[in-house]
Structures are given as structure tokens and as C-alpha cells.
Amino acid sequence: MSETFLPELPQELWRAGKLELAHGVQQSLQVIRMATAGLGRFLAEVESRGAKDLFGHGSTASRLAEMAGLSRAEAGAVAKRAVALNPTRALDGTEVPPVAPATATVAAEGLVGDERIDQILDILKRLPADTSVEDRASAEKILADLAPTAGPRELVEAEAKLLGWLNPDGNEPKDPDPKEPRREVTLERRRDGFWKLTGLLDDETGARTAAALEAYAQPRPVDEFGQADLRMKCERRGDAWAELLDLAIACPDQPGTSGYRTLVHVTISLEELKSGLGTACLDFVGTMTAREARLAACDCLILPVVMSTAGEPLDVGRLRRFVTPGQRRALNIRDGGCTFPGCHRKPKNCHAHHIEHWVDGRPTDLRNLVLLCGFHHRLIHHGDWQVRMAADGLPEFIPPQYRDPLRKPRRNTLHHR
Fold first, then answer.
1. Within a 13 Å sphere around the CA of 367, how many CA atoms are in the beta-carbon half?
2. Of 64, 307, 336, 389, which residue is most buried, by most CB within 10 angstroms?
3. CA-CA distance, 130 to 300, in Å (whole number)?
């Protein structure tokens, strides 16, 4: 075995140029790899003779762990790699060829490191069991020639091509019928009124869920007042989940909803709902404040329920549709999305908001309706912004005085330019 030496270091390394530094790193790396390959040959010989007979150790890995101060796992990986790259001998003295001789050649030249070697060995294990000796050797030669200049991704792509060549029909499925994917969702209402959602998704469903949430959880753009979206990522994902629910519920084929966002059972008197005091039951799953009910009632079905003082239902009214499908299509065309200044949300992410609320006796027509996304819908209901219909029949918004002392009306120009 030829002797190898580390490159000579300049006395003042900080004076070295970039080419000298790059050459020093490359040469040192090659020397380390060549030394590792040499160590592998020694370990393969120890494995052939038997570590117990030579040193009294149960395995080559345990002997190496003691000599080098390595953990058993670290030493085991080195010994396993050495046996795979070098010929050994069986108990009867016959030679056992290496698993990856071509890889051993480039490793001995210091051209590949342990990570690429292990990746090649793993790929060889995944080749079809009926691969011939010649095809296996050809596949290993292709990987070995690629490894000195390739990264892990290139080897993964090479593996896919090799498997397509060696096994174009793919492996025979173990099960005649695929198993149902495992998906679990648990939803429970806490005492503080919040709901706790937990779940377990299979890989495909989890990836689709993550993609959908990320698509709707992008930060809102900085508005005209320079205010950025300060929500944390988890909060943006929570809002994205609410938007996805709105989209699902608004689907015409959705069972039980027929394309309407919400079914509100009003369990308080109309006067209480107008005043904003009292509570309402949302589809018999919990209570909400009257203010929340006013917001939900902008674009939903209302089922008035008259209650007695003892809580007994006395009369259940008929469902009344407020925003018709035709009106919704007209709103989508007129507004093009959320009408709040600077908002980029599209019509499918918006609610139909009554400028003057229906509980106050106002009509449900286009001059009294605007599209608002969930965030700005809540802002209009619970904030100090005001919306009105201008003389040209388009909505405009009046900011609160603390945002604009002159309260100059503003419009969204993002959807129609």
C-alpha cells in the first residue's frame, strides 16, 4: 500500500489565497478518504481471520470500538462498510467477493466518502431479487462512476432509472387490495368556548392538507397605511382552516348545506338580535353572541326559533334565503373579490355582507351587498371602519378617524383596474 501524507500547511495559513485554501481542503479530504479505504482493507482481513481468534473480541466492530474509542454503532457502520467493499474469506478459505467492487475502487482513490458509499450499498439492496449477476455489476458500476461528482439527489434519480430498467413492471403488490388509509380527527369543545382539533393523517392526506393550508395562510400584503400582517404562522393557518371550511360548506354538492355557508338557529328574540345582546345557537352545537350571529347571518340561511321563558320551542319558522345564487354571481362580477381597500382575496373566499343589516329591515339587493373576506367581514362588524355604496353603485370604505383624521373614502382597485 502506497504511503499518503497530508498536504504541507503554510506557516501562516491566513496568508493563503483562495486557490491554495481550496486545494488544501480537496487534498486533505482525499487523503482522509484514502486512509479510510486502507482501514477498511485491514478490517476486512480481521473479519476473514476472526476477531475472536485474533484479539479475543466477539466481532470486528467491538475490537474497532475499543481501539478507536467509538460507540458500538459507529464502529459497526465502519466494519460493515469495510466488508462490503473488500474481499473476505469464508470458513473453508474460499474467497467471498465484495458487494461493491467498483465502488471500492473509487473509494481507494479518495474520490467518494462514507455517505455516498452507504447510499450506493442501500440502492444495491433494493435491486430486484432476481437481478442477474451481470446486471447487478453493471448497475453498481454506473453508480460508482457517478458518485465522485454527484450528490445524493443525483444518485436517487439514478436509482429510479436503474429500477425502471431492471424491473419495468414494478414489484408485485403484496396485498391484492390496498388498505384503507388511516385518518383520525378528534374535535371537542372546551369549557372556555374554544374547540380543540387533533388528528392523525396518512402521508398523502397530510401533504394535501399542508399544501391547502399554506396556499391560504400567506401573510396579507401591507395595506395603504403601512400596516403589515402581524399574525403568527399558526394563527394564519387557523384562519386558513376557517376559509377552507367556508369553501367546503359553500359547495353546491355539499350534503346538508346545499351551498349555503351556515344554518343559524336564532334562539333569542328579534329585538335582542338587533340590539346585539343575547345568545344564539349555531346549528345546535353551541352558543354564540348576538354580534356573532349578525355576522353569520349576512350570507346564510336563517331559521328563527321562538322560545318560551322556560326554554321550550313554541314556533319554528321557515328557512329564508337571503342572497340568491343569481345575486351572488352578480356580486362576483361586480366586485371581483373582497372590496376592502388593498385586499387581494378572490370571490370564492368572500362572504356577501349586508351594508345595512337585514335585521334592521333593510333589503337584500345588490346595492346593499358587498363581498368581504372573513377577516374584513369581521372588521366591518366589530371595528370602526364603515362601508357604503357610492353614487356610481360601487362600494367604498371610510376609515376610522384614528387611521385618517379626514376620513377620506377609499376603494379596492386590485380587482378592477
1. 6
2. 64
3. 63
